[in-house]
Amino acid sequence: MLSKEEVRYIASLSRIDLKDQEIEVFQKTLTAILDYIEKLKKLDVSGIAPTSHVLPLQDVFREDRTRPSLTKVEALRIAPAQAKGSFKVPQVIE
Amino acid sequence: MKEFETVIGLEVHLQFKTETKIFCGCANRFGDEPNTLTCPVCLGLPGSLPVLNRKVLRYAIRVALALNAQINPVVKFDRKNYYYPDLPKGYQISQYDLPIAHDGSIVVSTAGQEKKIGIKRAHLEEDAGKLIHDGANNCSLVDYNRTGTPLMEIVSEPDLRTPQEAYDYLTALKLTLQYLDVSDCDMEKGSLRCDANVSVRQKGAKEFGVKAEIKNLNSFKAVKSALEFEENRHRAMILAGEKIVQETRLWNDEKAATFPMRSKEEAHDYRYFPEPDLVPFSLAPNAVEEVRRDMPEMPHAKLERLLKRYSLVEYDAHILIQDPHIADFFERCAESYKDWKKICNWIIGPVQQEMNSRKCGIGELKLPPQNLIGLIEKVEQGVVSNLVGKDVLIMMLDTGKDAQTIIAEKGLAQVSDTGALEKIVEAILNENQKVVAQIKEGKDSAMGFLVGQAMKKTQGKANPKLLGDIIKRRITDG
């Protein structure tokens, strides 16, 4: 069973704020998923090529030709806040 | 005193100069008004889907081939998950376990010899947006124009041993990339960026020391300075018995020092997984071969060939290959004129001087190869002196006319008419009888003075060699 700390860590990576009660729920549900993966690991897949995509497709390209971009106004319309023609976000310090 | 060894590996990010971004049709351009080059794909809006730019993959194969790397026959993209405001999707499309290329190498001239530096891997990814911190208003501003710019990350093996070696590696790598014509390679514009990993250990030790990753390196010189700083910092800490922690540090150019990056201490946990929005790509041998056929000659091969074919000295050949267009220009000149050393001298001397002062490449100078040869011939025939020849070159570049035309129009041809020169010499000798007497007493150095006087009289147009001969004969005979 996943520990409370592990669930909190996973939640923080996803920027999800969980209440203590919810953590207990996810301890169970996430563990069930992991257990299922463990079961899958036991399958003999030696004859199966590794698959990274579910569609039997490869090499899908576009040519290097420009298409119109959104206007600044259109792009910024979805911004929660804007300033000086840019998306405005809480200060990030490095 | 213990002997230390520094171990350095570099990560270079290269922006490709394609027309469009890696996964969408927005123009891939630097310097536009913020947020005018975005679309639902590069803004990461729900429901949008990335599609790979064919040219990006082609450029990536070019880089892989130039780095003599193994190319994976099938590659895929993966999501690298992290939250930062310059990354609108909350993940960067990158490559994890199946990069374009791995296990390559590049030959670097360093400390007077050639050293092969390993290339661990090279993979494709998308660039992030640009953040401007506005401390006064307690906010950050994001420009998403750069989001989705095609990037190739080139990771060296930890084969570099000194800051100078790292500098030389970057120089060689940049030249190779410039030859491929896939990027501007301009650090100022950010189309070439570099992070450095450095650690210090006892010489002969098997294990690496604890490494520091250095970011914010804005020039090759900064890379070298930052590595020198870190090398000293690590050594001092080891000698003092202090524990080095693995961390990311930022180089501060003004203070000439690195400082730990202030950020939340959260282990990087990128949770890579295959990008479900992109299908895999095959880099089958025949597709790679097709790219290989288009490959230009690489700098190292060109150097060897120029040395052999034109019997140039290493120094000259090195300068010529710094710009493939200049090397080409040299070779085109060399087709019709056989004094290759002379051509080389003109190119790396006056011609490059003019390129620098005009801030342009050889292609933008109004100088077809035959015009340079025409000028060299006029100088060699003694029609104009070397010095006047340089002036003629400037006028040729200003007007696009050939040497012969300029010389005729400006009346620059040296006076090689012996009759006219005899008269001038006679006058000079009469005016300077004291000097003549000195020369007769054996003071040969005074000859130069007389030649100078005669040159002055002809406004520099006299053939100096002819003039010298006449003066000498007159004095000995008279």
Describe the structure.
The complex is a heterodimer of chains A (94) and B (478). Chain A has 94 residues and is mainly α. Chain A has a domain at 4-41: Orthogonal Bundle (Histone, subunit A). Chain A has helices at 4-13, 20-41, 72-76, and strands spanning 61-62, 82-83, 86-90. In chain A, strands 2-3 form a two-stranded antiparallel ribbon. In chain A, strand 2 (82-83) and strand 3 (86-90) form a beta hairpin. Chain A is flat and about 55 Å long. Chain A starts with a helix and ends with a strand. Chain B contains 15 helices and 17 strands. Chain B is 40% helix and 21% strand. Chain B folds into 3 domains: 4-290, no CATH class; 297-410, no CATH class; 418-477, Arc Repressor Mutant, subunit A (Orthogonal Bundle). The longest helix of chain B has 20 residues, at 220-239. Chain B has 478 residues and is of the alpha+beta class. The model of chain B has no long low-confidence stretch (mean pLDDT 93). The chains are: A mainly alpha (94), B alpha+beta (478). The interface between A and B is large, with 38 and 58 residues.
Summarize the structure.
The complex is a heterodimer of chains A (94) and B (478). With 94 residues, chain A is mainly alpha-helical. Chain A has three helices and three strands, in the order H-H-E-H-E-E.
